[in-house]
Description:
The complex is a heterodimer.
Chain A: H1 12-15, E1 31-35, H2 52-59, E2 64-66, E3 72-74, E4 77-82, E5 88-93, H3 107-119, E6 132-139, E7 142-147, H4 154-157, H5 168-173, E8 188-194, E9 198-203, E10 217-221, H6 229-235, E11 240-242, H7 248-253, E12 257-261, E13 266-271, H8 281-290, H9 293-301, H10 331-340, E14 347-353, H11 359-370, E15 372-378, H12 381-390, E16 396-401, H13 407-415, H14 429-440, H15 448-462, E17 466-470, E18 473-477
Parallel strand pairs in A: 1-10, 1-11, 14-15
Antiparallel strand pairs in A: 2-3, 4-5, 5-7, 6-7, 8-9, 9-10, 11-18, 12-18, 13-16, 13-17
Chain B: H1 2-7, H2 11-33, H3 65-97, H4 102-118, H5 121-132, H6 136-163, H7 166-173, H8 178-214, H9 226-233, H10 245-268, H11 270-273, H12 292-301
Amino acid sequence: MLGLALGAGGSLLLAACGGVATTGAGGGGETLRWGWDLPSTWDPVFSSKGWDVHLLSLVYSGLTQLDPKGAAEPALASSWRYSPDGRRLTFTLRRGLRFSDGTPVNAEAVRKSLERGKNHPKSLIASQLTSIDTVRAPDPHTVVLELTEADYQLPALLAGKTGMVVSPAAFGADEARLATRPVGHGPFRLVSYTQNSMASLRRDPGYWNAEHIAVERFEAFPKPDETTALAALQSGRLNVAQIPFSQVKAAREAGFRVQLIPSMVVRVLDVNTAMKPFDDPAVLKALKYAVDRQALLDSEQFGHGEVDHQPFPPGYTGFDPALGAVYRHDPERARALLRKAGYHDGVGVTITTTQPQGAPEQLQAQLNRVGFRARIEVIPEARASQVVYVQHSRALYLDQFAGRESPVQAMQVLFGAEGLMNPSRRTTPELDAAVAAVRRTPLESPRYPEVLRAATAVAVRTMPNVFLYTVPRALARTSSVSPIPSLPVVQRFEGVTAG
Amino acid sequence: MRTLRRAWRPAYAKVALLVLLAIALLAVFGGWLAPHDPLAQNPRNMLRGPGPGHLLGTDYLGRDVLSRLLEGSGRSVAGAVEAVAAAMAVGVPAGLASLWMGRVGEWIAQRAVDALMTLPFTVFAIAVVGALGNGMHQAMLALGVLYAPLFFRMTRAAALSLRHAPYVESAELFGASVGRVLRIHIWSKVLPTVIVTAAHALATCLLVVSSLTFLGVGVQPPAATWGGMLATDLGFLTQQIWAPVFPAALIVITAGALNVLADAVRDAGADELLPGGAPDPAAGAPAATDSPDTTKERADAALPVV
């Protein structure tokens, strides 16, 4: 079986929490009430937020899923194999599975679902599926992907939103209805949903991995406000909640269990090099040296997480240790770069953000210290995607990259010519070649880590994104809830009991 | 003026005025009194309690809380004053002018005001800021527009009974211009009402400016305002449970003093505000009773805007 191999440092992904309770019985548990962001839509093809994947994975499965180390493992598919030239990928499906509407999960359904994601004119995942030429279903239990080029990333890629299989009967009958009534094959079925308020789900006993799903009812609520997260746990409205780092200590003192789950999330500055002042490479370089990542991490996350100059967290296969602190905080150098570029009176820059307090204020002070004249612009969160990702009308945006199942997918989002987080839409032939080499390299090849790290190094040195620090997932739970599995990308709840 | 002189007499009014004087001094000189640079960050010294170096402690970026409170006073008060000034500039002249507009004009003016009063405040403020940019003046302009109906209706209600008073009609028959009638016979009697309304509105605007900052609208970080400090302090309650007390106390004290002063002016001018009381001796007897229109409009004017 192929998978996404992690280096030795990958153990960090497992380090933060203890073992996970499992149950062979399944069902019968109490209700798990989770405070998280409700999805922008329940249709994975149109989902516009990286965070959606967590809730969507409650009602959908892909052909694969990621294990705690980030390697692809079987989900709807029981196994897969590549042809020798890497241009044909054959999945063998589990038998007897059904979608929540009762229709069978078979090869034809998988084919139609993948083709919809690839060909729908409004699909937001189509750019991830370009290496798939055709999808065939030679028999009910076999799906064959004919690829345009060798792409060994697909098993990992299909573990996320990109590979979630939607019932063809549902999108064939009323596609718009999927936005609020998902029809997939997942650990739970959506029973009721009130937008921006609550999603109520029930365990699906027909789920392929149902014996590891212990809670009978799952209720998802919007992420509680920073000031009320602990109160929500204390009152019992939630029994698992994402809490701000400022409240980790208080939560522990209040008797809640707190897990800091290492994730793929990295805080980042999206820089538009098509806009002033970052169309000047000297200004961009000065920006990279002006940022004191450790100070940001200490005050913003109370020291939880790690300083990171790369798109991947330390310990991940794609993390290149040789890069070191490539843009170590060096205000003198930043100041000199600006002076040398002719900016003797400073250079104006606008930091765009949805939440002005904290990191933006600190960043502003750091930039002003070296000769920038920084101001903060606050835009409503609801408009941020449109303004930053669609209109590309902001030069500097304080962002957060949620990570992706496949490192190539992550690089496409961050650096690709169509990448959401590449506002200038500029890339380099050198990086394109490096990413293509990663795609062509089998994951079990001993060269894979080296090739991937080489691509990371090229990206960090040539692309404008300024990576800052990793963001662990801080989950607080009541004592009635058993430990949450430590999974780097999608938060699943196998083995979790509540009550 | 007589009303204002009478308002000064009660002890509680004197206290309120002194408090407001102190706040005004803080607003003007607060920045100079600040012991530290209110924007100077020191992340290694963040969320510290009150102590010798920082009398009110430090915030989430290690900035001196006392300095930020002092420096932010001017911005907080100026915002409220700007909003009320904008509301008065729109509402008072329009309220007085509506009496001379004729039936159609009056009807249109009142429906326009009704329409403004139906707008949800926060949504309107965010829309204005979205259209004109996120800044203090834009937010205050939005606030002023939404408060204008209050001044329109209060002014109109106060002036409506005077408009048909015999001494006003006499003045008009003797050829006095509209401007002279307004200036000599109406404005002096409407002024106490406007002052009471402005004092109440200032107190409310101070709170609204704070809540707007709370929502990220108006004054932008790192500039300090009382409301902004209150909003961010709430995010660190587990570290500094006492921190919101300082900005909240300043807001409460200022709003309270304004309300007390408004009450004093209202009480002092109660007789004069009623058409049956304290007539201008030179102008003959006013109408003995309110017209149904006047009573209704005064009641309507008291409706809250927000």
